[in-house]
Amino acid sequence: MSRPTPVTTGRYAPPAPVRELTATSADGAPIHVEVHGPEGAPAVVLAHGWTCSTAFWAAQISELAADHRVIAYDQRGHGRTPASPACSTDALADDLEAVLTATLVPGERAVIAGHSMGGMTVMAASARPAFREHAAAVLLCSTGSARLVPESTVLPLRPGRVRTWITGHILGSRAPLGPVTPAARRILKYATMGPASAPAMVEACARIVHACPRTVRHAWSHVLATLDLDAAVREVDVPAEIVVGTADRLTPPVHARALAAALPDCRGVTELPGVGHMTPVEAPDLVTTRIRALVTAHVSAQQPSVPVEESA
Predict the structure, then answer these.
(1) How far apart are CA 219 and CA 83, in angstroms?
(2) What is the C-alpha to C-alpha distance for residues 253 and 259, in angstroms, rounded to an integer?
(3) Which of 61, 80, 92 is nearest to 281 (CA)?
(4) What is the layout of strands, in order, in the sheet containing 135-141?
(5) What is the tens place of the pLDDT at every residue in 188-246?
(6) What's the CA gap between 124 and 145, in Å, rounded?
(7) What distance in Å separates the CA atoms of residue 9 and residue 5, rounded to the nearest whole number?
(8) pTM for this predicted structure
(9) What's the count of helices (H) and strands (E) in the chain, helices before strands?
């Protein structure tokens, strides 16, 4: 069965990168990386979430690439990065370190934005040398550090063991998602987006999520179900901002508030009324503005020169 492709028109159509390269992770896994925008401009690194790809950041890339160097990469098994048997928070951290090392010169600092599992990647890498060297500030969108399944409100049941058990089985299902049909859009919108999400937003997200291989979706669901990055949050020692939707059923605002309390330098939590889990798509201008403001505040204009490399 052929997998859906990203939308090709509108603000959620992925722009063509200036160049592409392959970063090699600690275990030898190849990581697909895209670079957008002018060389030498302030750098932004984007880490997408579970079942997504670089296409998820299309709106942010299109806006920021005018005057930023935007680096986006596909997590293991997602997008154009091959699947790997190594699925763990350590692997997430290894891969982000590899991307930072491959795209930023020594001493160059960037704003790192992570959505959902991408935010968890930021937390997992917080004590790593490459993160400490290159992270100037972080934006955490719709994410959490632990208790993802017990806190999920995808099922309209009272909190407790029954809801946790059923939610875990749904999120960890091996069933194929199939083609993007009207019914599939309705299900995805209910589970991951706010009720007022526009059809173009739902279509863009559905195509991205349905393109993720079911084996990859299943493998990473186990990592998320047992996630415990509470200690790692306290190692994120750079300025951090948090964005969450009040209608987020996968990582409800309780997670954002816990992160804000644990982060050493939290600069604020933005709760978006009626917005669901897909904040970069549902509130693209807000997320882009937050990234741009973090760059302005924390990325020095005096950066090491960035060499121009050939595309891989």
Answers:
(1) 10
(2) 10
(3) 61
(4) 19-24, 30-36, 69-73, 43-47, 110-115, 135-141, 240-245, 266-272
(5) 999 999 999 999 999 999 999 999 999 999 999 999 999 999 999 999 999 999 999 99
(6) 9
(7) 12
(8) 0.95
(9) 13, 8
